Amino acid sequence: MQVIFSINLHGRDLQILNKIKAYFGVGNININKKTGEVNYLVRSIKDISSVIIPHFNQYKLLTKKKADFELFSRIVKLVVQNQHLTIEGLNKICELRACLNLGFKGELAKKYPLDINKRPVVEIAKYIEKD
Questions:
Q1: Model-level pTM?
Q2: Which of the following CATH numbers is that of domain 60-121: 3.50.50.60, 3.30.420.180, 3.10.28.10, 3.40.50.1950?
Q3: What pLDDT, on a 0 to 100 scale, did the predictor assign at position 81?
């Protein structure tokens, strides 16, 4: 099982992803010349659990992405605990993944339909204070 943290932006924002990569010190950047997108990817479960997740636990997201992050964190925790090696754990991961972002597509969407009631409730910040 592969867990991936990614940030996808338009190619014109490559410098932003380079700064994010330099800040975290982990991951890679891929450029999709066909779509014009650039992607920052962290594929190492160790880097995700020891660098990415602690950062966003300390510096909370202020948008609806906070719910996706909470689901993602639960999935990573289950994988770190080797729960993906059991049927029960794998089913739990699939249920959480079905609620992440836009859910599954195709056949998996039929087996694990998006259940908005399982998404964490997140109060979206009405404004962001400037320092």
A1: 0.78
A2: 3.10.28.10
A3: 95
